[in-house]
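Q: What structure does this chain adopt?
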Amino acid sequence: MKRPRTLGELKASGWPLERLRRGVREEARDNLAAKLRAGERLFPGIHGYDDTVVPALVRAILARQHFILLGLRGQAKSRILRGLVHLLDPELPALDTPLRDNPLAPVSPEGRRILAEAGEDAPIIWLTPEDRYVEKLATPDVTVADLIGELDPIKAAHRGKGLADLEALHYGLVPRANRGIFAVNELADLPARVQVALFNVLQEGDVQVRGFPLRLPLDVWLVFSANPEDYTARGRIVTPLKDRIDAEVRTHYPRSVEEGLRITLAEARLPEGVRIPGFIARAVERVAFVARRDPRVDPTSGVSQRLPISLLEQVAAGAEARALAHGEPALARPRDLYGGLAAITGKLELEYEGELMGAEALARELVARALAEEWGERPGLEEIEAWFAGRRTLALPENLAAARKAVAAVPPLAQLARRHAADTDEEVAWAELALEALVGQGRLERHEGTYRPKPPSEEGETPGRSVLEP
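A:
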């Protein structure tokens, strides 16, 4: 069906004009209600929030409220905000003005002029949901003019009607988001004077520009995100603005390894042909969980979900590189987690003790502890530790065929790996996991791929803390 191109064609087309009488929040409410009745997934690609964040969002949207998402980095706040476009109508008619005026009730001087001059012949444009979403990352250099607008002297001079000409105004991002969603990421970083400029938008739905007698009854759905450290401890969101935000929704990290792994597998860009056993993928996810509860990692900064995503990609790349170099199947092994330390160190904000230790040394320890946790309570480590008690060492080569021979030389290790592995290739990965579990528990140490018992002088160290060397 051909879209109407003028106001008259729109009225004659039978398009439901009652939609133009709804505000954007009413529109989102109606579409959300329809999705709930149909049993549709409300936020595709968002995992782990079904019983916590999503119900809170549903209440805020049904209540037609402006809201803020509070959470540490890497908790899908921006993705949730961008997902709100799925609650907008697939198309919406508008006048071709900077404010995308409602054809039946324009709010801008330009829109009213076009309607007065052209009448039924006023041209119509069609907006997609993406056209109606405007996002701004809050930074200290953002000005009131950026968000609200200011007089354009060149435009005023060209029109020749003086500085009070309302059509000579250059609108900021908020007015340009009229009839849509305006999102501010990291709201606490917005200067206080700019936050003040948002008061009337939230409370009265209008803006004032440079003191001109301009009142724009905007229809904008304002949504925000912020880090709770900035929001509470540093108090950089001014109190009157906090009071005007209707709902505060708290996000969180995954509550379980399985929940986190679903997110990681959905987001990671993994090459075809690389096999990642389930226990390797879970160990990758456990690195983030171990880091989040380590006292040497700053808890107020958090450990982003991007850490396991990036680490899993590095693990897959390590397995692929080894396969290409040795002409063997691309199979991920525990050693690949150590090869991906670059995906860990840059994502950790360390406390004083962590800074003294160093990011790479701490990352190695986190990997070892994650591998030990993945082994968990599985039996069989005692027999392997007993084999090393005779001051034996075991070098586990990178090459899969050579590593298989090395594992076969340690009967208890070979038997244990055979019991858990799905095939002979995976036996090496399971054997390596068992050895790394002993390292993570402080019962062995590893140096350049060689496993050996700890020296007698270190026997009194606290279990679970090991001396890890490259």
